[in-house]
Design a protein that fits this description.
About 80% of the residues lie in helices and about 0% in strands. It is an all-alpha fold. The chain has one domain. Helix 2 packs antiparallel against helix 3. The radius of gyration is 19 Å and the shape is elongated. The two termini are about 35 Å apart.
């Protein structure tokens, strides 16, 4: 039961971070489009999208359901799956005129740019944190 509750807490944290990030990105785009604010319906869509996205993250990047898969394959699976989910939200939520193919290219381009930046940022953070803990582990082993 404790492990389940820890998992729920972690999932909630990721959902909140994803919601905050999606609202920030949507706000920037809305400003470029001349909107005065973000409609409440869109905020609800972004919240639901964040909940789904963080669940996908938990499924794809842990060994909960997928026991063995290389990290690059997991990244690709997440990107394709989440882009598909976001596309449905964008289409049903009428985030932009969906009848023009160019709009979908811009949408996919923005998604891929943000996905690449976040993946690179996570990798840098993970490597720096890993080096820090490797150094601390080495010091502790020397003391013993």
């Amino acid at each position: 039961m404790r492990k389940f509750l820890e998992g729920v807490l972690t999932w909630k944290t990721y959902a909140c971070m994803m919601f905050t990030g999606s609202v920030a990105v949507f706000w920037v785009i809305a400003c470029f489009l001349g909107w005065e604010g973000i409609p409440l319906g869109v905020l609800l869509q972004l919240l639901l999208l964040s909940v789904i996205g963080s669940l996908l993250q938990g499924i794809i990047f842990t060994e909960w359901l997928i026991k063995s898969m290389a990290y690059p394959a997991r990244l690709l699976l997440f990107a394709v799956t989440f882009l598909a989910v976001m596309s449905v939200f964008a289409w049903k939520g009428q985030w932009f005129p969906a009848g023009k193919f160019g709009n979908w290219l811009v949408f996919a381009g923005i998604f891929l740019a943000i996905f690449a930046a976040m993946t690179a940022g996570y990798e840098v953070y993970f490597r720096l944190t890993g080096k820090k803990y490797d150094g601390l582990l080495g010091e502790r082993q020397k003391k013993r």
